[in-house]
Amino acid sequence: MPEGHSVHRITRQFQRNFVGHTVRLSSPQGRFVEGAAVLNGRTLTDARAIGKQMFLEFDHDLWLRIHLGLYGAWDFTGDLLLDATIASANGRMGQTNQRGTILDEAVLDTAGENSLHSIGAPRRTRVRMSEQEKELNHLETFPPEPIGQVRVRLLTDTVCADLRGPTACVVLNPAQTLVAMNRLGPDPELDSGPEAEERFTSVIRRKPTPIGRLLMDQAVVSGIGNVYRAEMLFRAGINPHTPGKVLSDEAVRALWQDWAHLLHIGVETGQMMTMDDLGRSDYVSAMKNRADRHWVYKREGLPCRVCGTHIVIEEMSARKLYWCPSCQA
């Protein structure tokens, strides 16, 4: 399932390419015909991400709520605008690291993924944006024929966005949108201030629920998924079974601040990079190989990078949990 950084990046794509434009909507699959008809021909006025959910605002107080879920993905084609975070001062395209510096060349991992491909490309190019599937294909015609079961297509004169396999795709009025937004926990990419931190901290510290479950609860905090949960708890040295109310105020606030830090890195680079202070060669290596980006995620049976104890795997909140029994005792 896409985690918060992916949805923020997809929302940026809509902000750059669709906001302020009249949009034609259709449902090639046929499962969103009525909703597409309601929004067809309206102007997209805003695009917002809160955690794993995206909200597109149209004129006449209409909203489209999208939750990609496990299988959802967006395909973008056309004159896609590039993000400033991957262009240096002289206009060369590269890839930022967590220190904000520019690498001269985009770094592809073993799956062919990099942040350049995930955020924009020239005309007649298809960019697929989801957590596990990103590809770059050159096209001969625009707009292209839909690929797969496209729930909804958003089309302007120059850009096309196709949505496939979402968990939710629904038209809302302002009151319904407010209810949906208010159900979600704080998102530090939207608000990293003291009130958001206090909201997160107060909820965690009064819950008897294990912190490993709380971090995956989107009503507690928005955007954290399986990867970030495992990595944040390791970085904090916290046992995932520890009840939230047992944690100190300082420990919970440190978790919030680390989530803000990691989420921002993810939004800027397109990768869930959780290893800090890497030199250039180590950073390039990590960007090429996902196994080098994380402390514990998908490292079950391997020695901990810090203490050498074997990383264990178990199930929590219906997802695989990775942790070190020694560092997180």
UniProtKB/TrEMBL annotation:
<dbReference type="InterPro" id="IPR035937">
    <property type="entry name" value="FPG_N"/>
</dbReference>
<keyword id="KW-0234">DNA repair</keyword>
<dbReference type="InterPro" id="IPR012319">
    <property type="entry name" value="FPG_cat"/>
</dbReference>
<dbReference type="Pfam" id="PF01149">
    <property type="entry name" value="Fapy_DNA_glyco"/>
</dbReference>
<keyword id="KW-0227">DNA damage</keyword>
<dbReference type="GO" id="GO:0000703">
    <property type="term" value="F:oxidized pyrimidine nucleobase lesion DNA N-glycosylase activity"/>
</dbReference>
<dbReference type="Pfam" id="PF06831">
    <property type="entry name" value="H2TH"/>
</dbReference>
<dbReference type="InterPro" id="IPR010979">
    <property type="entry name" value="Ribosomal_uS13-like_H2TH"/>
</dbReference>
<keyword id="KW-0255">Endonuclease</keyword>
<keyword id="KW-0863">Zinc-finger</keyword>
<feature type="domain" description="FPG-type">
    <location>
        <begin position="295"/>
        <end position="329"/>
    </location>
</feature>
<keyword id="KW-0326">Glycosidase</keyword>
<keyword id="KW-0511">Multifunctional enzyme</keyword>
<keyword id="KW-0456">Lyase</keyword>
<feature type="domain" description="Formamidopyrimidine-DNA glycosylase catalytic">
    <location>
        <begin position="2"/>
        <end position="100"/>
    </location>
</feature>
<dbReference type="GO" id="GO:0006284">
    <property type="term" value="P:base-excision repair"/>
</dbReference>
<dbReference type="InterPro" id="IPR015886">
    <property type="entry name" value="H2TH_FPG"/>
</dbReference>
<dbReference type="InterPro" id="IPR000214">
    <property type="entry name" value="Znf_DNA_glyclase/AP_lyase"/>
</dbReference>
<dbReference type="GO" id="GO:0140078">
    <property type="term" value="F:class I DNA-(apurinic or apyrimidinic site) endonuclease activity"/>
</dbReference>
<dbReference type="GO" id="GO:0008270">
    <property type="term" value="F:zinc ion binding"/>
</dbReference>
<keyword id="KW-0238">DNA-binding</keyword>
<keyword id="KW-0540">Nuclease</keyword>
<dbReference type="InterPro" id="IPR010663">
    <property type="entry name" value="Znf_FPG/IleRS"/>
</dbReference>
<keyword id="KW-0479">Metal-binding</keyword>
<dbReference type="Pfam" id="PF06827">
    <property type="entry name" value="zf-FPG_IleRS"/>
</dbReference>
<keyword id="KW-0378">Hydrolase</keyword>
<comment type="similarity">
    <text>Belongs to the FPG family.</text>
</comment>
<protein>
    <recommendedName>
        <fullName>DNA-(apurinic or apyrimidinic site) lyase</fullName>
        <ecNumber>4.2.99.18</ecNumber>
    </recommendedName>
</protein>
<dbReference type="GO" id="GO:0003684">
    <property type="term" value="F:damaged DNA binding"/>
</dbReference>
<keyword id="KW-0862">Zinc</keyword>
